[in-house]
Amino acid sequence: MSLWLDAASAAATLNVVLLVALVGIWARNYLEFRSKHPLGLLVFGLLLLAENCLSVYYYVIDPQVATLLRSAAPVAGRAMTFVQILELAAILFLAWVTWD
Amino acid sequence: MEGTLWYVLTGTRGGRNRIRILQAIDERPRNAHQLADDLDLDYKTVRHHLDVLLDNDIVDKSGDDYGAVYLPTDRVRANWETVERIFERVE
Asked: Do the beta carbons of residue B11 and residue A29 sit within 8 Å?
């Protein structure tokens, strides 16, 4: 159980770090080009960043509720960890193409 | 092609330098060394950007590896209004 919570915490934290870097690149490009392409990426990145900040709060900063809910419904808890890891994979891939 | 141009030139970290490279070779086809000198960029950086531009069919090279001269592709020429719109944003 705690291993699943740790995995979700690690993935959410990494997501925040990667998204901050990506949002930085997209914001700089938007400010420079004022075009809709970097704007779209920027808005997408900011919303996903907000979601992951919430996850970090829920898993890392104040995990009381997460622990309680996960012990009541372990399968749902694991599914949420899986979602977090899928997001990490998606963001890593996006980072790879954006870093170019 | 339009989407590719916006993405490759304005959606990634190296977009700014790729725009400078495209502007330079539009003015006059050049090889990687000349581009590095003229744009005051690292040779390896220029090679990397040229590879990305080649992969996306934005530039062509004529001649063999060393000293090959790079120039915009016909496909980019056909979409030159988009390229100019992107250039305008950088001024």
From this structure: yes
**Domain span including residue A39:** 3-99
Which residues are B31's β-sheet partners? B69
Model confidence over B34-80: pLDDT tens digits? 999 999 999 999 999 999 999 999 999 998 777 899 999 999 999 99
Cβ contact (<8 Å) for B13 and A38? Answer: no
Burial class (CB in 10 A: 0-12, 13-18, 19+), B53: buried
Put simply, whether A44 touches B (Cβ < 8 Å) is no
Joined tokens for residue A88: 């990490």
Given an 8 Å threshold on Cβ–Cβ distance, is B13 in contact with A99?
yes
The interface pTM score, or ipTM, of the predicted complex is 0.78
- Within 8 A of B87 by CB-CB distance, chain A residues are none
**Mean pLDDT across chain A, nearest whole number?**
94
Number of structural domains chain A divides into: 1
Separation of CA B22 from chain center: 3
Q: Under CATH, what is the fold of the domain B1-90?
A: Arc Repressor Mutant, subunit A (1.10.10)
